[in-house]
């Protein structure tokens, strides 16, 4: 919208806003954004298609494949996700939803010549990754192993816990497998490089505080540090100096925090601290200077819902908008990943459901809650300070690498009314606002910009998520 039109709308709307507030005495508030107060840098938002979920996507018709990919990665018609978390297989086979290993059989000990096998497909994760990279420009790929193959472990099985042979307190008659495991992870990165996908982050543990009947491997912080000391040089030797090590995807935020003491000595060899939200939600920062990612959360059991808000149920969109807020603003997270993107079946463990007859693909409002963050808070964005907020609302703000400033107002309560957002020391040539609530699937929300280009005003209704985006003077005008 041209600035002249905005001014006319601004004057009209201010008069209207004042008239309304006297009649209905609703929320009225000014949020001030302070660009000089900076917090963490964002790496992005994302999800995964591990455990053969990518195969489910690929089995769809070409039209539904494209629709699914657009919903995940398209920056104008979907969530615009910028991070994909892939699973590095550890299973000897592909039965059930297993992720098969690139070395399913013991090559004859930790020092034997490796016998890697690669099908170029990796349960269709190569296809999803290639589409993400080539079609949609995704640049961040997190390859994460749930376990080492069974023959490298104390329990001889990639499932049911057990530890990697050779870490502190885990000795095996077969020897020390730390170096062989590091080499194996490096080889996985090389296979992806060969198909044109650069893995940027690698993790060697998933929920090391939990034993499950599927791929799982136990580790404490010391045992993780033992692996990191071997993995970092192995990556560097293979010229993967840019590939960062992520650790440790603990089951909950506080269990990851509890591992930090034993990881301190290897913090300079680590890239990102990763944690899930199942046993404890992100409520305060993890004790580290490194970027922290929330790498897995979902409503695992609840019956499928696509709702934005009905009774604040565990699968509703507004609830997820709030969860993301807590991770970023209260717990300093630089990335937020939902567990699964696209999958069939009756639970909320995914954001997008493949119908039982596989003839349709249905996005939930959880996806759009993610999208309302992901599309406006881009990789490299720096979170900035805000003060003042409407009653019952959660407010966050970011300066994006392209110079735009985006401000999120999540009104989780029943207040509604005019909200003014002022960005100190910043002159906008234009402002846009988008709204998500039970009845609206966005489109634009009417918003006005003050004549000095610093303050935007819009009506923020109850139980809604409104995003303001300020374009700096001098930027080429967008659509
Ligand atoms: C994203 O979606 C828009 C709108 O449907 C479409 O025009 C565009 O081609 C898509 N982008 C990519 C990279 O596929
Ligand atoms: C190492 O990687 C860099 C880019 O990351 C590349 O320019 C260089 O040629 C590589 N060297 C070797 C020995 O592969
Ligand atoms: C937040 O994360 C950044 C790294 O992204 C770190 O430098 C900073 O110390 C963290 N802040 C707190 C309060 O933990
Ligand atoms: C925000 O969420 C709504 C649905 O609640 C969705 O229709 C809309 O496309 C989302 N906005 C963006 C920009 O992703």
Question: How is this structure best described in words?
Answer:
The protein contains nine helices and 20 strands. Helix 5 (178-194) packs across helix 6. Helices cover 25% and strands 27% of the residues. The chain has two domains: 27-39 and 382-472, Golgi alpha-mannosidase II (Immunoglobulin-like); 44-374, Glycosidases (TIM Barrel). Mean pLDDT is 92; it is low at 1-25. With 479 residues, the protein is of the alpha/beta class. Strands 17-16-20-14-13-12-1-15-19-18 form a ten-stranded mixed β-sheet. One 2-acetamido-2-deoxy-beta-D-glucopyranose binds next to strand 1.
Task: Provide a compact summary of the structure.
This protein has 479 residues and is of the alpha/beta class.
Helix and strand topology:
Layout: H1 3-24, E1 29-41, E2 44-48, H2 53-58, H3 62-73, E3 83-88, H4 125-135, E4 140-145, H5 178-194, E5 201-203, H6 221-237, E6 244-250, H7 253-263, E7 272-276, E8 291-296, H8 317-330, E9 335-344, E10 350-354, E11 361-363, H9 365-374, E12 382-387, E13 393-399, E14 405-411, E15 417-423, E16 428-436, E17 441-444, E18 447-449, E19 455-460, E20 464-472
Parallel strand pairs: 1-15, 2-3, 2-9, 3-4, 4-5, 5-6, 6-7, 7-8, 8-9, 9-10
Antiparallel strand pairs: 1-12, 10-11, 12-13, 13-14, 14-20, 15-19, 16-17, 16-20, 18-19
Bound molecules: 2-acetamido-2-deoxy-beta-D-glucopyranose (4 copies).
Region (Disordered): 91-112
GO molecular function: glucosylceramidase activity
Protein name: Glycoside hydrolase family 30 protein
């Amino acid at each position: 919208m041209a600035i002249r039109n905005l001014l006319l709308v601004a004057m009209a709307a201010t008069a209207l806003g004042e008239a309304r507030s006297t009649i209905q005495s609703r929320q009225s508030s000014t949020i001030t954004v302070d660009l000089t107060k900076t917090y963490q840098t964002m790496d992005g938002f994302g999800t995964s298609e591990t455990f053969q979920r990518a195969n489910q996507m690929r089995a769809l018709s070409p039209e539904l494949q494209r629709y699914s990919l657009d919903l995940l990665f398209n920056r104008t018609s979907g969530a615009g996700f910028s991070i994909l978390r892939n699973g590095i297989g550890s299973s000897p086979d592909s039965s059930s939803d297993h992720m098969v290993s690139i070395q399913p059989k013991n090559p004859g000990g930790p020092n034997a010549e490796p016998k890697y096998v690669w099908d170029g497909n990796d349960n269709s994760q190569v296809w999803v990754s290639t589409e993400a990279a080539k079609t949609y420009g995704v640049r961040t790929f997190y390859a994460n192993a749930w376990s080492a193959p069974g023959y490298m472990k104390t329990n001889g099985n990639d499932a049911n816990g057990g530890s990697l042979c050779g870490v502190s307190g885990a000795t095996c008659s077969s020897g020390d497998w730390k170096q062989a495991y590091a080499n194996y992870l490096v080889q996985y990165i090389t296979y992806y490089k060969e198909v044109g996908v650069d893995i940027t982050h690698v993790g060697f543990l998933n929920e090391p505080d939990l034993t499950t009947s599927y791929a799982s491997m136990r580790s404490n912080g010391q045992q993780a540090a033992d692996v990191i000391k071997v993995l970092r040089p192995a990556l560097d030797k293979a010229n993967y100096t840019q590939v960062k090590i992520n650790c440790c995807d603990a089951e909950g935020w506080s269990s990851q925090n509890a591992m930090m003491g034993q990881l301190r000595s290897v913090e300079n060899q680590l890239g990102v601290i990763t944690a899930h939200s199942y046993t404890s939600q992100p409520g305060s920062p993890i004790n580290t200077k490194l970027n922290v990612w929330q790498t897995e959360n979902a409503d695992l059991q609840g019956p499928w819902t696509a709702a934005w808000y009905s009774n604040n149920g565990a699968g509703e969109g507004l609830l997820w908008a709030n969860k993301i807020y807590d991770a970023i603003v209260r717990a300093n997270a630089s990335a937020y990943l939902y567990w699964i993107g696209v999958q069939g079946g009756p639970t909320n463990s995914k954001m997008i459901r493949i119908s039982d007859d596989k003839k349709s693909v249905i996005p939930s409002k959880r996806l759009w809650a993610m999208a309302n963050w992901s599309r406006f808070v881009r990789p490299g964005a720096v979170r900035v300070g805000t003060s003042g907020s409407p009653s019952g609302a959660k407010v966050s703000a970011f300066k994006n690498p392209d110079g735009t400033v985006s401000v999120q107002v999540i009104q989780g309560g029943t207040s509604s009314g005019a909200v003014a957002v002022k960005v100190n020391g910043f002159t906008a040539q234009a402002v846009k606002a988008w709204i998500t609530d039970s009845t609206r699937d966005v489109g634009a929300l009417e918003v006005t910009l003050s004549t000095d280009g610093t303050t935007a005003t819009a009506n923020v209704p109850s139980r809604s998520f409104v995003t303001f985006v300020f374009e700096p003077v001098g930027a080429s005008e967008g659509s």
